[in-house]
Specification:
The protein is an alpha/beta fold. It has three domains: 2-109, Phosphorylase Kinase, domain 1, CATH 3.30.200; 130-330, Alpha-Beta Complex (Aminoglycoside 3'-phosphotransferase, Chain: A, domain 2); 335-528, P-loop containing nucleotide triphosphate hydrolases (Rossmann fold, 3-Layer(aba) Sandwich). It contains 20 helices and 17 strands. A hairpin with a 2-residue loop joins strand 2 and strand 3 (41-46). The protein is elongated and about 90 Å long.
């Protein structure tokens, strides 16, 4: 089949083969398609691939799915799909006659400046999302509904099956713990929220949806919306929860770091359908969709040979796997993860590792303090009186800066990892109040470690240059004495105590359990209200 595809690509690359004037041709390949951009038209062909979810293995099947794609996509993008095209094999490939070589679809070229991505930094983005919401809401209301479904298949086994397909790659390139963590989330989240999933069909939320609602597939023309590339190859991929459908776009906006636009879009859809429990389902669906994007990139990786492109695809896989973990620890809410603890406990090591594998930005009190020294013309390697670093005035300035960073993140509906001792209750209360004011969530992780190990670590710092932390063994007693107990955090249910010698994935499991418990209480409270 590779020779067949290569011959087709060579044909499409020649501008003399088109019936219209073509000045420039761009070929794009996905794991299932070959696309020729030959302005003012686009020609799309299906690769002869066979997966467990898709069968394009014969010419007849590719023709059938081209016809289905034409029909289905006119519901959300009526004027873009023009006609079927046939490539023939005579003396050479052509569009006019001979033995049928391949079927494809002819579409109108849509300029990139009309793609949704172009508007994401625009002050009118909320207006554009409102148009998209209205377009989709009308589509969903008219779509066929499914009131009797196999709940376990739709909500659990299908998702678990997709994860298992990623297992080999995750074990080889990352870790078994990453795989196990996502599996634990799928198991626990579905189990705890099964009643909400089970009610979706009877409440009319399972519909014939788009199935691949991505940023790349949405175009804005003045006050008209075109959403194309609906899934045609597998009806089960479209027969899903409306909230699952929109979660794909929401997840993609998050992956592009447009968390605020993602939140805005979710709110608009949820309000349009008055969907009381959509927020409960979104973390599960978005974790699943990010995993699907990782899987698609894994499939694409097996088809490319160029080292640069391979590196790009691997980076995409890592990005989406991190995003899966992001939803596991945040449950799709902006969260401040405050890593606190006594000097030498290993909170900086743990917080940095946590930030790295979840993709959450980190701010550190040590970095803020050192940046302050450098901005004043100092050198972080100079011998200075480090006791001055721990005056109340300097500490207050550092915690004020942390709160400024946290405010910016929460306003953009983003999470943040904070690495700071938080020895004083007044500083803990201040960040809690900020979080409540900005409607975010907060989790304090108090990192603990045996006193003897802490002393050994502080002694080693004396001979290790380049350390961000300036705390040394000589400061330990003084800093321990001013470290106030965390009883009030425990009472308020904000605190996780964690031994730094355990794995970071063990911490993520603890955070998941902690977040799920709080979610159950929040839902129960809102139901009573």
């Amino acid at each position: 089949m590779w020779e067949h595809e290569k011959k087709l690509i060579d044909f499409l690359m020649n501008n003399e083969n088109y019936s219209h004037q073509v000045s420039d041709i761009q070929i794009i390949q996905t794991h299932i398609s070959i696309i020729s951009i030959a302005k003012p038209f686009v020609y799309k062909f299906k690769k002869g691939v066979l997966f467990d979810f898709l069968d394009y293995s014969t010419l007849e099947k590719r023709k059938e799915y081209c016809e289905k794609e034409m029909f289905l996509n006119k519901k959300l993008c009526n004027n873009i799909y023009l006609d079927m095209v046939t490539v023939y094999d005579g003396e050479k490939l052509n569009f006019t006659g001979g033995t049928i070589f391949e079927y494809g679809i002819k579409m109108v070229y849509m300029p990139p400046e009309n793609n949704l991505l172009f508007y994401l930094n625009d002050y009118l983005i909320s207006d554009k999302l409102e148009l998209i919401k209205k377009h989709l809401a009308d589509y969903y209301r008219k779509s066929k509904k499914f009131y009797e479904i196999d709940n376990d298949k739709l909500y659990f086994s299908r998702i678990l099956h997709n994860l298992l397909e990623c297992k080999d790659y995750m074990f080889k390139e990352h870790s078994s713990e990453l795989f196990e963590m996502i599996k634990i989330f799928i198991d626990q989240y579905y189990d705890k929220n099964k009643s909400y999933f089970d009610a979706r069909a009877s409440n009319g939320y399972i519909a014939d949806c788009h199935g691949d609602l991505r940023v790349d597939h949405i175009y804005v023309f003045e006050n008209q919306i075109c959403i194309y590339d609906c899934i045609e190859f597998n009806e089960d991929f479209r027969k899903i929860d409306i909230i699952e459908d929109i979660s794909f776009l929401s997840m993609e906006l998050d992956s592009l770091n447009y968390f605020s636009a993602s939140h805005d879009f979710e709110s608009k859809i949820i309000n349009a359908f008055k969907d009381k429990y959509a927020q409960v389902l979104l973390p599960y669906y978005k974790c699943f969709k990010s995993m699907i994007r990782a899987k698609v990139n894994m499939l694409l990786l097996s088809q490319i040979t160029d080292d640069i492109k391979k590196s790009e695809v691997k980076n995409n896989i890592l990005k989406y796997l991190r995003l899966s973990l992001y939803y596991i620890v945040t449950l799709n809410k902006p969260v401040l993860f405050v890593f606190m603890g006594k000097v030498g406990s290993g909170k900086s090591t743990l917080s940095n590792l946590f930030a790295q594998i979840t993709g959450i930005e980190i701010v550190s009190s040590d970095q803020i303090r050192k940046q302050g020294v450098l901005e004043k013309g100092g050198n972080q390697d100079e011998s200075v009186d480090k006791n001055n670093y721990y005056t109340d005035q300097k500490k207050n300035a550092i915690y004020n800066q942390i709160e400024k960073n946290a405010t910016m993140k929460l306003q953009n509906h983003q999470s943040l990892v904070i690495d700071a001792t938080y020895s004083k209750k007044e500083h803990r209360d201040a960040i809690i109040n900020l979080c409540e004011e900005k409607t975010g969530n907060i989790v304090f992780i108090e990192v603990e470690l045996d006193l003897k190990i802490r002393k050994n670590r502080l002694q080693k710092r004396e001979s290790e240059p380049g350390q961000y932390s300036d705390a040394r063994l000589e400061h330990m007693e003084m800093l321990d004495n001013i470290y106030e107990n965390t009883t009030s955090l425990e009472i308020q249910n904000f605190l996780i105590k964690f031994n730094q010698e355990n794995s970071v994935y063990s911490l993520i499991r603890n955070i998941l359990s902690f977040q799920l418990e709080k979610q159950v209480k929040t839902i129960a409270h809102s139901s009573i209200s």
